[in-house]
């Protein structure tokens, strides 16, 4: 995730929580991650990207810190809906559908059409990139048939899959890490009022 964001932001460091879920696949894990991220002691920073798709802890950090704090989920939704595009989320975590829907609705100009899920266990798919890509591509195709003009690959750990699938997707893909990096760069370039 750091390498992907680093193609847009000139200086970036990664931080991983020392505890909590290895991958967020349930609402309970998302809530646990929100507490961990929100309470994280941080040094002075220019900006923060919360690189988990549900943006756990982003609001708490934004209230605590004086720098911009961007979540990859909200940034992706805003970018996907530019120009009024209809968009969908494609991901591996069906238990998070209600949380994803809540995060996507009302962001940007576009019309959010809902989630489409890769078939298979999320952790198992992550262990096999070829199988992951095939399952995500099938879900992207399903989203396109449902009217999506763009698809968000929903998840920070799915960042590399988004990179691999961009050239073969039937609709434009929005990679959340890149979307968040662009959003943070824009806010940093806007200066203090860009917070």
Automatic annotation (TrEMBL):
Pfam families in UniProt: Asp_Glu_race (PF01177)
InterPro entries assigned to the protein according to its UniProt record, in alphabetical order: Asp/Glu/hydantoin_racemase, Hydantoin_racemase-like, Iso_Racemase_Enz_sf
Highest taxon of the lineage: Bacteria
GO MF, any single term: amino-acid racemase activity
Family according to the record: Belongs to the HyuE racemase family.
Annotated protein name in UniProt: Hydantoin racemase
Organism field: Seohaeicola zhoushanensis
